[in-house]
Amino acid sequence: MNIPNQITISRILLIPVFMVFLLVDFGWGSFALLGADIPLSHFIAAMIFIVAAATDWLDGYYARRYNMVTNMGKFLDPLADKLLITAAFVGLVGLDMFPAWAAVVILSREFAVTGLRLVASGSGEVIAASIWGKWKTVSQIVAAAALLLHNVIFELASIPFDTVMIYIAVILTLYSGIDYFVKNKHVLTESQ
Q1: Among 35, 107, 126, 151, which residue's beta carbon has the most beta carbons within 10 A?
Q2: Residues 153, 156, 157, CA angle at the centre, nearest 5°?
Q3: Which residues of the chain fall below pLDDT 50?
Q4: Membrane-crossing residues (predicted)?
């Protein structure tokens, strides 16, 4: 297994650690940061989430730079993204910090595109991430990070940055899902 794929697997392995800090009340209290009151465990979860999300860029950069792009990486990388985002949004819904309707839209798209990729793989085709899929992932990561940090960056200005990012993430999620299906409709028509 090459280094980019090992980095991707490290992202998957960070997910349970992230979830523990997000969901378990350790009783560590909270602290004020730029006007926002953040539970220490949520701050730690946010840092783990951000590090895990950054490995998405790192593994892709390393794979392209050193010509280590593999079909396994093309499959594992989007899967790791989906697992990380799913864990974050499901955890945030459970904490009543993320709207359930947005989580359903986002997760439905993720399952649909994963299904499309599985059908394509049955005929030996690999559907790599599109530019819209990458922007979708970035918007979801920014939305989740803003929520995990209790909107700390814009709390002083009273700008609901986290709410704006939720809507941007939902819009990009829907658009990128439609884009995948339009560009790869042959996968479904040829599989009948």
Answers
A1: 151
A2: 90
A3: none
A4: 12-34, 40-62, 83-107, 164-182
